[in-house]
Amino acid sequence: MVLRFNDKGLHALADYTRMWMNYTIGEMSIDSYSHKIHKGIAAGDLNLQNISVSRFYPPLIRYRSSEYSLYMTTLGGQVELQAEWELESAFLSLFTFPFRGEVLGRIAGLQSEISVQINPSTNEFSIHHCTARFHDFRIRLSGSMAADILHWFRTILGKAMKRKVEETYCKMISEKLLPWLQYQITKFPGYLEINFGENIKLSQSLHSIAMTNSHIDLRMKNKFVTNGHLIETLSTLPSSIPNNGEVFFSASTCHFHPLPPPLSP
């Protein structure tokens, strides 16, 4: 059996990825961050900690395949962030009011492209490149008079935070999405098990993955258990596409093994 992902299959995978992303990014935290302000009365170190996602709207996702890579592109979406800030400034430390508070951020217009390469000998997935850009990033600080002063620098601070979130996004793709995507594709054949009566059972496991500019083929290793014997076959890739077909049955290599007798109680 060969399982083919064409445009419809990749579209369904994209919808499934949006569901996964909605859950995962909603639970994601971002590493603490320190930004250096070099000029002005607020010159010093601005520290951000306890950065978390308060609300997330997943972007539109599209998968497309090529002979060498699987591409995932995103467009749109929105993230709302919250964090705690603290300013360490030599000049402002002369005053008595506190230099800490809360920062709220809103990110919109995510545009990204991730290229995933698949090792044909091991079926291992790896990130070839990841680019991410948010076109709209807005922040608001609150908590003290220092927050009003920092609003003078919100453009510089916003750009710095934007770069940090873009880096975190690609890190999340590499550390969380990639293992999930590999598991979904490579383990899917294991769910295909067919019983033909009491004495014949067909089960599948992944042998290899073949990619083209229009589809992805999962080539199966088939196992038939019949009358106490195991027959293993290896599916061949079709030379043409059947009418509206996405699952192909064929075999080129066959191995016959008698099953060992059951253990005595």
From TrEMBL:
GO terms for cellular component: extracellular space. SUPFAM superfamilies: Bactericidal permeability-increasing protein, BPI. Residues 4-229 form the Lipid-binding serum glycoprotein N-terminal domain. GO terms for molecular function: lipid binding. This is Lipid-binding serum glycoprotein N-terminal domain-containing protein. It comes from Panagrolaimus davidi.
